[in-house]
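Sample intake sheet
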Amino acid sequence: MTAPTAEDLQNEGLRLFQEGLYDEAARRFNDAQELFAGAGQEAQVAEMLNNIGVIRRKQGQWDDALAVLDEALRVFKRLEDQSRQAQVLGNMGGIYASMGKREQAMDAWREAVNLFEVLGERQKQGETLLALGLALFKAGQRQEGLGAYQAGLQLLEKPTVQQKFVRTLLSLQARVLG
């Protein structure tokens, strides 16, 4: 029997994550990270760090999650991989929000929104704007929060049924108050 490849370990980690087996998934991602590092695949090493950071977030280990994600972000910046930078920043925003650090969350989300805009990744930009809009609204910046949320809804290419409903309500409101 041959040893599993880094890709095999990554896929197994994703499967375990989806099943909610976070510690096992983290071990697979860590093993995959080591193999990717041995092969000089920096982007994949950072991707495994991102995955581990998401797991640590799910486990409520926010400081560990931020440390791992910060390391992934540094690699993606060095590699000039803006898409993955934006994804990591979005993840970091979620952690900061969970920690009650709204300003840091909003800063991370704004940076992610800007990168997604540059890249033309409308769905991800929209999803991030939704999170930013809610955070702004909760922080008492109601108008700015509502504006960000509405902008996010308009950008979504695959809105949920609830998002379609809210988008319709907001467009009706605009016509009535317009």
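Comment: The chain has a mean pLDDT of 94. The chain has two domains: 1-61, 81-178.
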